[in-house]
Specification:
By secondary structure, the chain is mainly alpha-helical. It contains 24 helices and no strands. The longest helix is centred in the N-terminal third of the chain and has 34 residues.
Length: 543
Amino acid sequence: MTFSVLTSLLGGVGLFLLGMWLMTEGLKLAAGGALQAVLESWTRSAPRGFLAGVLITALLQSSSAVTVATLGFVNAGLLNLAQAVWLIIGANVGTTMTGWLVALVGVKIDVAALALPLIGLGMLGRLAFRGRSRLFGAGQAMAGFGAFFLGVGVLQAGFADLLGDVGHLFTGDVTFTRLLIALVVGAVVTVLTQSSSAAIALALTAAASGEIPLEMTAMAVIGTNIGTTSTAILAALSATPAARRVATAHVLFNLTAAAGALVLLSPLLWVSAWLTAGINPQGETPAILAMFHTLFNLFGALIMALMGSRLIAFLQRRFVSAEESLARPRYLDPTLAPVPALALRGLVLEVERMREAAFAMVGHRRAAKAVGAATGEGRLLPLGREIRAFIGKMSAGPLPDSVADALPDVIRAVQHLEDIERMSLRLRTPPAGIVTASANWSSLRQALTASLEGPGPGAADLEVASAQLIETAERAYQQVKTDLLQATARGGLPVGQLDDALDLADAFRRCAELAAKTHRRLGPWEGHPDASHEEALRHAPAP
């Protein structure tokens, strides 16, 4: 193998990747916010999400761009896991369009006659419309198409020379060893270039020579599906749990499609040749391979569709973070909703779990050195939504008076706990100067601690005991407030620190009041009418 052949192949890959990048970035600029609008509005159902993934990827010629956008929307909460999975599956099918471009255009025409004018016109448009982003992007995309086809032409010439040197490794009889080599080569090239499109172009341009058996180039194409999982695996190493699930779906799809293609290699190749007979009367290998690539990716999509909800359920159980674990109900079994007494018991247990988490947040945040130093903002809101949804299911049918009386208190308790989480964001350890300015800080801290602990099971009258806790917190707050104002008037506390000190004292008071109100709302329904039912609920697996 001569040095000139290697440089030709390297340059061809470089031109191809450069063209892909220019096309992708240019089309994203030309589309403006269309990509976001489509991803948000076209994913209401699995078929629509799949079609959106196919169409956008076919347009952008980059499944990576769609995948990255999808991960961003998942992290932002704009797409759920099911929507994202079908977008990813569609993107993998849409990326087969690259093979069709190479097969039907790239290896059939005078590349220079098409590529060079596209590059020239595209760059002129890019220069002429520098201040107009959409036209600027369209010019860049046109230049990208030119570089894409030019790269294909360079690769064709390079492979023609390469086969003269190492053709004996790939030509001749098809053996298991040669098939395995072709599979590994396809995977390795994809990993090295981090672009399945580039690897597909390499395989199809090599196949255009007619020297390499169809089965071997098909194995190389299968290898690209395996190799492209490396991008998702690398991206998932430091990603959020939601992004890891989407990346796992990407890996599962590609491995499933590759496994199906390996098992059905001969039948799929025969069907591919038959389907392309109309547009490929001479039986040229690139067109057959493009069809083969499309078919086995559609086969993978069909397998994923048959798995359906089981696939989503499997992914949702993977990479669960502490925040997600908290947000997932533990006692709200949907099968209990038609049985109001048992449903209420599970509901109360779930709110007790929410209360425990909220009070723990208060404890951590009041020990923090600065506001916002303790993390976890908004952790309780998803659980609150799940609790309200469960109450909605309970209310759909007739309810006994005892259950109907309990639900308003349970809802108010959830509201108090959500308010506690928001209020706790203002908490921190009081600075030494503020503590010195008021000797009553210890009383305010004790009032908060007492409210978090609650009246206790021995309280004769929960309403009265809760009111006493609120009154104690209010009295301590007023004492601290008076101390701080007097210290500021005497010069003991800088005026600039007064507002922060009063805000901190108010946060202590408000958390204490909300905690006492939570106990008052939830306390009457924390009895144990049926210990066996409660034990069953506590030890049941999360639904």
